[in-house]
From TrEMBL:
PANTHER family: HAD SUPERFAMILY MEMBERS CMAS AND KDSC, N-ACYLNEURAMINATE CYTIDYLYLTRANSFERASE-RELATED. Pfam families: CTP_transf_3 (PF02348). It comes from the Bacteria. GO terms for molecular function: N-acylneuraminate cytidylyltransferase activity. This is CMP-N-acetylneuraminic acid synthetase.
């Protein structure tokens, strides 16, 4: 069976207009995801799921396929990533195509490389995970987090108020880049994160969540710094 990379890129981004095809250091940000997927050599199909013909044109220009446009139901503000993936897999199924593994690769993840995708794919298969995705370690111990209410600070976990940072267990969060998953397992649970999910650690310099103009500028600076080190 074949593998597919699915890049979800709807046209209705609110915080950063036209975010998915905005220029990131000289080319549309979605191009980085398409190129990483193609360079990995892991996928028989690299496709973009979008409701926007402008995004579709850009995606095709950089080598992705857009065999159909996303439905209105899967393109509204409340549609989940899982709903988008289910629709894509169903459309391919109607055409007689099925897949063993798939990767949901976000269009605003320029730090993803073919090497990272390959590492995740190998981990997914070697451990028979349902899904593997990149995670980053929190910069500060979450056990020493505080809440702020009416200007007053209180510990979430007061038992760790005096615990040394080096004695606390590291915690991680989703790096927001991709989910590499077993298609039959996903179709059964319709969930990307299950109790059989693996994580692959990426450094602070290997990912950056982009939601604001400041995020965008910092991501470009970080990407340039990473490029200088290669």
């Amino acid at each position: 069976m074949a593998n597919i990379a699915i890049i979800p890129a709807r046209g209705g981004s609110k915080r950063i207009p036209r975010k998915n095809i905005r220029s990131f250091l000289g080319k549309p940000i979605i191009a980085y995801a398409i190129e990483a997927a193609r360079q990995s050599g892991l996928f028989d199909t690299v496709m973009v799921s979008t409701d926007d013909r402008g995004i579709a044109d850009v995606a095709r220009h950089y080598g992705a396929s857009v065999p159909f446009l996303r439905s209105a139901e899967a393109a509204n503000d409340f549609a989940t990533t899982a709903q988008v993936l289910i629709e894509v897999l169903h459309q391919y199924s109607k055409q007689g195509q099925s897949f063993e593994y798939a990767c949901c690769l976000y269009p605003t993840a320029p730090f993803v490389t073919g090497t990272l995708l390959t590492e995740a794919y190998n981990l997914l298969k070697a451990n028979a995970f349902d899904t593997v995705y990149p995670v980053q370690q929190y910069a500060f111990p979450i056990q020493r987090a505080v809440r702020l209410a009416d200007g007053k600070v209180n510990w979430f976990q007061p038992e760790h108020a005096l615990t040394r940072s080096q004695d606390l267990e590291p915690a991680y969060h989703d790096a927001g880049q991709f989910y590499f998953f077993n298609v039959p397992a996903f179709q059964k649970t319709q969930r990307l994160i299950t109790d059989n999910t693996g994580g692959i650690v990426v450094s602070e310099m290997q990912a950056h969540d982009i939601d604001t103009e400041t995020d965008w500028q910092l991501a470009e600076l970080k990407y340039e710094a990473m490029s200088d080190e290669r």
